Amino acid sequence: MAKRTIMEWGSGADIHGEDPLKAVSRAVSDAIHHSCLNAYACGHIDEPLTLRVNIACPDAYRLRESDVRELFPVGDVQSVAIKDGGLLCPNGTLIALAAIEIDLE
Known about the structure:
Blueprint: E1 4-14, H1 20-32, H2 37-41, E2 49-57, H3 65-69, E3 76-84, E4 87-88, E5 94-104
Parallel strand pairs: 2-3
Antiparallel strand pairs: 1-5, 2-5, 4-5
């Protein structure tokens, strides 16, 4: 059967601590809430799903792939790409982006 792919993105910020994982966590949460992952987590979709995750964040070297994988409550995270990007504002606000590709069998 052909795969159906859903592409979602989200943004997240840490306003006070310049913590990239906190900003990425918020970006992933934002992306999840734009997609059908909530329906999957509630049991409304019973098809296997796989995820490919792309993260853009200032100071990307401070992130561990294992920490990003733990942010996903469902699905098989096939890949995580973490790249420098996002935005670090002069006032210390750190903004990260997450793009998630979701394949349903």
